[in-house]
Design brief:
Strand content: 25-35%
Structural class: alpha+beta
CATH architecture: Beta Barrel
Number of strands: 12
Largest sheet: 10 strands, mixed
CATH class: Mainly Beta
Number of domains: 1
Number of helices: 5
Order of helices and strands: EHEEHEEEEEEHEHEHE
Low-confidence stretches: 1-45
Strand order of the largest sheet: 1-6-5-4-12-8-9-10-11-7
Radius of gyration: 16 Å
CATH topology: L,D-transpeptidase catalytic domain-like
Mean pLDDT: 83
Distance between the termini: 42 Å
Length: 218
């Protein structure tokens, strides 16, 4: 499998790294209105919405013929503020979840509150799009090593033509989240901290699945 030139050695992410049993992951998908909370001893962990995970699994099943690599998926929970880890890498076999900071588009948060207010698939919107994505090829661009994305739903069908990609950004870091309470904003891309790129690109290379959405609080 193409790892984009990365060494197979994995570094321990700064973000939350926890283990869930496969049984818990599967059970979460059927627990209406519930969420499972990962509780490592060293830090408070983010909750992952069971409803969002169930939507992601349903979308993966719906697009299975377009996703050759289904061992690891990413779920972006844009109901959470940007200061918290909300891009979750989910190992389908073991239930292991690693969570990373990720920025949303400036068009989705025009007042820069740190909360995503709206999605858009429109050209020139500078907004994040919801829906299912396939990770495509690596390339080197203005933000260094990056990864193209193809939108698989009507809500993100323009992703490739809009240049929506996964890339690193100076405005995404734990220091910024802590000191300012918000991350910077992208132009709709999944912008990550530099320290997250190696793991994300290694584990979520071409032919994998990303699902992005926002479940309203009840």
């Amino acid at each position: 499998m193409d790892r984009g030139g990365f060494s197979p050695r994995r570094t321990k992410p700064k973000e939350i790294d926890v283990l869930l049993t496969r049984r818990k992951v599967l059970a979460a998908g059927t627990a209406a209105g519930a969420s499972f909370v990962m509780r490592p001893a060293f830090a408070a962990a983010p909750a992952i919405s069971a409803e969002l995970l169930a939507r992601a699994r349903a979308a993966l099943d719906r697009h299975h013929d377009k996703i050759p690599n289904r061992d690891v998926i990413a779920v972006a929970d844009f109901a959470r503020p940007s200061r918290l880890p909300r891009l979750h890498l989910v190992d389908i076999g073991s239930g292991r979840i690693n969570s990373h900071l990720v920025a949303h588009g400036r068009g989705s948060d025009p007042k820069h509150t740190g909360w995503l207010e709206r999605f858009s698939n429109g050209f020139g919107s500078n907004a994040t799009s919801s829906g299912a994505y396939r990770t495509d090829d690596f390339y080197v661009g203005a933000h260094g090593r990056s990864m193209r994305l193809s939108g698989l739903d009507d809500s993100n069908s323009n992703a490739l033509d809009r240049g929506i990609v996964v890339h690193g950004a100076w405005y995404v870091s734990q220091d910024m989240a802590t000191s300012r309470g918000v991350l910077g904003r992208s132009e709709g891309c999944f912008a990550l901290a530099a320290g997250s790129l190696e793991e994300v690109f290694e584990r979520l290379g071409p032919g994998h699945f990303i699902y992005a959405d926002k479940i309203a609080a009840t």
